[in-house]
């Protein structure tokens, strides 16, 4: 499949600058999640790539071909994009086979290709004769993906495809969709406002905010090295503590911790993820009071206030060893931490 | 400084509406033409009022005759709305909320009177009982004909109500009766007001039934003025007052409804309510319902069959029957096609290109809902004589009148049909490499065809029993089932009239069945596209 390249693309609706000088490269056969709160412009970006909207300026390339920009606009029906909208949008008057075969030439609409596609999205072959209303939400999404992949598109675009599914189905469907995309060697863009979805499914996460892509990097980097505190908070739980940097180490209320990147001496703020806060026996660190415990079985989230008077921060602990509410614990920080100056 | 485990969670917002697109010019132009056509009757009324001037208008209005008509019309509208509401709500509640046996059958029987036009119903009564006339006669017959207009929306609303609300009221210690009046009835308000509005507007437009029952209202008086003197001024001024009355009712309904919202707070399908056990009252309740069905459905059926047997013993004019039926069918089909066709641009604009211009176009097509057929007919007679003489007394003018009168039904159906084909399906189709024309053929048309069929069926049903405008506008040699029935029953030839009425009811049946089928199909597809 094809590499997707978005270069300095702008799109405004009236006074609203929905997409603001966006650059983004999606390498061949990889999936990029565009992550951002609603209204950040991520859906507009997707629709620009699909061809439903035309950019005000900038270029969009599929491989070497310019599909929008430089005075040239390829209409959506000639772009060869696979589009999976929210809630699937299956054609309600057609059965599963006809939905999947919709984009194929007439001769292939009832061919073995349908079976292959059902197999690819892990649905049994006899589903071919079902109608959309006879499928669950997750199955509808899989059929929608099969329909998008059947004509072998250059780029697959998924617009919050799992947001209408309930939590358990969302994870299972998400992984099935990613497996199918990998098997089809597709280049894909997934638009989502769900951090877990973006981090767990994508090869690259592009965080969007107010029309701009503020960071595009592999999931681990976005989580471990966010470009700013806002991104840090958006992609996961985060405590931000004031610190003083001295010789590459941060001195905080929790003691001295290593800093992940090179920083100058002086005042800074450090980011501490809940899983970096370790609870130990009394005496082995800074004392804290357990304010509240959210127990999830496999793990638990613990809200702590440093004694005597704050600040408050969160810890994620193993479900086997959960402190009682009201107890006093000793905490240490597993470094290194990210510092913002 | 505080920290939290909560992610920067945001509520998954409703999908942002697609950015506004400017409507294509040709489509907008077509929409404007349709809107202009729909506005002809109202334009006629307004122009006439301005031309005649206030003093002349007042002298025509401030006559004792007009005061009598106003009194008659208002008292009948008020009384009928009240009786129809009581019957409609009571029967809807029994059918929808109790454990009465055979509720589906009762539902069918309670809706069936809609298939019998009010003027046929009044014929059934007045031909059997000479005492049925005047105010009480009109109240009886009209209530029996119109209560389904309240029954239907109330049944639909009761079915959609969340039973948890009533259960909460019961758990707070209120009795069934108190809960009904304090919780259920207030929630039925939109349905009740909508139904009451329909009853009032139908009644203001009703001509045949009231003429037959000898209870003069504005509509019958306009017709008498028109047919006796063919004189514009008096009839036209009455039409102005009639239109004002319709507007008063429309505005009144809007203000009563207010801005309160009655929607369910949480999403998800409503759980069906536990039916209330009637116990010992089951038999009397069933008897009351049977009485209502007997009066509204049984008596007219009996009367028609009775007069059919009386009539056929003397003569059975098969040729005349066939000719009138052919004309009714042909006019119905032509009007259905024309109306759906001109509804298309208005509905398309409203669904695909929402905006000020589209709204104005769509709203204009609804105005005819509040205009009695007689006003539309009067307007078209006047306009055609003054402006486009060649189409006066032609079938084209009659079809145009039908199209204007029944445009609202067609627009509503076509609009709903287009909503079955959301634009995202077009986009998916385009992304799969299918061009616009192919997309229309393979996606849009198959999806909207049932809804368009339903719209056509609605128009066909209305036209095949339409009397007022047909009497005023049909060319002299054009006889429909309705007009032939009318002329026979007006000359007290009850036996001769019966076969026309029966045929009129019979030819409506296939269209009604088509409508019933469509209702289930649209429920089915909306589950997927919603």
Walk me through this protein's architecture.
The complex is a heterodimer of chains A (341) and B (530). With 341 residues, chain A is an alpha+beta fold. Chain A contains eight helices and 21 strands. Chain A has helices at 42-50, 96-100, 112-120, 137-149, 167-183, 195-201, 219-224, 229-235; strands at residues 4-13, 16-26, 31-35, 57-62, 65-69, 72-73, 81-84, 155-159, 187-192, 204-209, 212-217, 239-246, 249-252, 255-258, 266-272, 277-280, 286-295, 299-306, 312-318, 328-333, 338-340. In chain A, the strands form four sheets. Chain A has a six-stranded mixed β-sheet, sandwiched between helices. In chain A, strands 2-1-4-5-6 form a five-stranded antiparallel β-sheet, with helices on one face. A five-stranded antiparallel β-sheet of chain A has the order 14-13-12-15-21, with helices on one face. In chain A, a hairpin with a 3-residue loop joins β17 (286-295) and β18 (299-306). In chain A, α3 (112-120) crosses α4 and α4 (137-149) packs parallel to α5 (167-183). Chain A starts with a strand and ends with a strand. With 530 residues, chain B is an all-alpha fold. Residues 1-19, 263-269 and 519-530 of chain B have low confidence and may be disordered. The chains are: A alpha+beta (341), B mainly alpha (530). At the A-B interface, β7, α4, β12 and β19 of A face α17, α18 and α21 of B.
DSSP helical segment count of chain A? 8
Largest interface: A-B, 58 and 38 residues
The N- and C-terminal alpha carbons of chain B lie at a distance of 44 Å
Mean pLDDT of chain B: 82
Structural class of chain A: alpha+beta
In brief:
The complex is a heterodimer of chains A (341) and B (530). With 341 residues, chain A is an alpha+beta fold.
Labels describing this entry:
heterodimer; A: six-stranded mixed sheet; 21% helix; 37% strand; B: 530 residues; mainly alpha; 77% helix; disordered N terminus; disordered C terminus
Question: What is the secondary structure topology, with strand pairs?
Answer:
The complex is a heterodimer of chains A (341) and B (530).
Chain A: E1 4-13, E2 16-26, E3 31-35, H1 42-50, E4 57-62, E5 65-69, E6 72-73, E7 81-84, H2 96-100, H3 112-120, H4 137-149, E8 155-159, H5 167-183, E9 187-192, H6 195-201, E10 204-209, E11 212-217, H7 219-224, H8 229-235, E12 239-246, E13 249-252, E14 255-258, E15 266-272, E16 277-280, E17 286-295, E18 299-306, E19 312-318, E20 328-333, E21 338-340
Parallel strand pairs in A: 3-9, 3-10, 7-8, 8-9
Antiparallel strand pairs in A: 1-2, 1-4, 4-5, 5-6, 10-11, 12-13, 12-15, 13-14, 15-21, 16-20, 17-18, 17-20, 18-19
Helix pairs in contact in A: 3-4, 4-5
Chain B: H1 25-52, H2 54-61, H3 64-97, H4 103-111, H5 118-128, H6 134-160, H7 163-171, H8 176-205, H9 208-212, H10 218-229, H11 232-257, H12 282-314, H13 318-352, H14 356-366, H15 373-386, H16 395-419, H17 423-431, H18 436-464, H19 468-473, H20 481-490, H21 494-529
Helix pairs in contact in B: 1-11, 1-13, 1-14, 1-15, 3-4, 3-6, 3-8, 5-6, 5-12, 6-8, 7-8, 8-11, 10-11, 11-15, 12-21, 13-14, 13-16, 13-18, 13-21, 15-16, 16-18, 17-18, 18-21, 20-21
